[in-house]
Specification:
Elements (H helix, E strand, L loop, with lengths): L7 H4 L1 H4 L1 H8 L5 E3 L17 E7 L8 E6 L2 E7 L2 E7 L2 E7 L5 E7 L4 E11 L2 E9 L1 H8 L6 E4 L12 E2 L7
Parallel strand pairs: 2-8, 5-11
Antiparallel strand pairs: 1-10, 2-5, 3-4, 3-6, 6-7, 8-9
């Protein structure tokens, strides 16, 4: 005689474990909110004396994974799922690091008065999440920004400092 099959809840561990997985996913030290008004809207032109950098993520892959982003070592924001954030940068050299399971670095020679758009393309290889940083033209970025919300970083791990709204990230080598 064949053994009896286990009740359906026990045969589907992925469904039975879902509440536990959701609880663990919510225990991240990176806290993001969608503010009613973005601190720096993507549609706002760059000021004459600094550059504006917007980082956007449109992928539905790895929605629960946070991508903290640093510019020349300064935390500037983060994304989780579909969304974006913008910040100001001094004219000059910038190394923008996006942290996932593997760090990705994009470089920029920023010019005052210009806006730059960095797209986080997401790859998920059986739970190993990678980001590919791709610079976009303004028209392509504006089309992608339709329908996604701004992210504001409101909580960080103890070894990080929250970005100050409107602050300007220093260039590695100032423009002369």
């Amino acid at each position: 005689m064949l053994p009896r099959r286990a009740p359906s809840a026990l045969r589907r561990p992925s469904l039975a474990a879902a509440p536990l997985l959701l609880l663990l996913a919510s225990c991240t030290s990176w806290k993001l909110e969608h503010p009613a008004t973005p601190p720096i809207p993507s549609s706002t032109p760059a000021p004459d004396d600094v550059a504006k950098v917007c980082v956007l993520r449109t992928s539905v892959l790895a929605l629960a994974v946070t991508f903290p982003t640093h510019d020349n070592g300064t935390l500037v924001g983060a994304t989780r799922g579909r969304g974006y954030f913008c910040y100001f940068a001094e004219p000059g050299a910038h190394a923008i690091r996006i942290d996932a399971d593997e760090a990705e670095v994009a470089t920029l020679q920023a010019q005052a008065g210009k806006a730059y758009f960095l797209h986080e393309e997401v790859d998920n290889y059986f739970g190993y999440v990678k980001c590919r940083a791709v610079w976009l033209r303004a028209d392509a970025a504006r089309a992608m920004l339709q329908g996604i919300d701004d992210f504001e970083l409101v909580g960080v791990p103890g070894d990080e400092r929250l970005p100050e709204t409107g602050s300007v990230v220093k260039a590695a080598v100032a423009k002369e």
